[in-house]
Structure formats: structure tokens, C-alpha cells
Amino acid sequence: MTSLSEKDKNIVQTFWAKVAGREEDIGCDAVSRPFATKTYFSHWKDLSPGSDPVRKHGATVMAAVTDAVSKIDDLIGALLSLSELHAFTLRVDPANFKVLSHNLLVVLSTTFPNDFTPEVHVAIDKFLTAVALALSEKYR
């Protein structure tokens, strides 16, 4: 698992406070990128950026990431049920967790350009890598 220092954790938690209230827009933007494909979402009629199902899924993703921030010291435990859901029920390729992490980095950096310093970038990247690994836990 990616090791987050206490400094990294503090940076992530402080930065994530800026995300509050904008989760739906940020999540929608992140999943509107190459992540939202017919591979996993064939039951959705409209996969266009900003559509209702994409917006709803983006909000769901961001709620899970926000919850992970609040449980940053036990990401595997915090994300265990989501790992099981994605591994056994949804059968999502875990490589998509890395894609989503990258998309979130892009959206966060463009949404908060003045706050997304190199130090914040590194801490958020390490955190999202740890989240992706925790989500992949039940695939092993």
C-alpha cells in the first residue's frame, strides 16, 4: 500500500475541505472523461458529459472519495464493501481505478489552480493511488 505520511494526510484533508460543496460537479467532470464508457454503463441511455446518470455517478464516486478522506488511516477497511462490489458484482477492471484517479487529479488541478501546488499534487496523487489499491484489495 502506498504510504501516506502524516504531512500527506494533513495536506489531503486540508485540500479536500475546498472540495466540499463541489463534489457533484467535480465527480461529473471526472467520470465524463474516458471512464464513462458503454463497457460498464450499457444500461444508461445517455453517457454524454453532464447527463443525469453521469452526474449521479460522479456524485457517488466523490462521496466515496470524501468518505475515504475521513477514514484516511484505514482505507482498506473504509473501502472494503466497494472493493467487494466492484470485484464480485460489477466486475470492473481495477485498471479503471487508476484511470479515475488520473481524471480526478486533472479535474482538481483545473478546478483549484491556485491551491493545487506541487506539494498538494504529490499528496493527492499518493492518496488516490492508495484509494485505487484499496479498491483493488478483493481482486487478489
TrEMBL record:
It holds the Pfam family Globin. CDD domains: Hb-alpha-like. One of its GO terms (biological process) is hydrogen peroxide catabolic process. GO terms for molecular function: haptoglobin binding; heme binding; metal ion binding; organic acid binding; oxygen binding; oxygen carrier activity; peroxidase activity. Keywords: Heme, Iron, Metal-binding, Oxygen transport, Transport. The keyword Repressor does not apply. GO terms for cellular component: blood microparticle; haptoglobin-hemoglobin complex; hemoglobin complex. Residues 3-140 form the Globin domain. It comes from the Eukaryota. Belongs to the globin family. This is Globin domain-containing protein. It comes from Astatotilapia calliptera (Eastern happy). The gene is UMAD1.
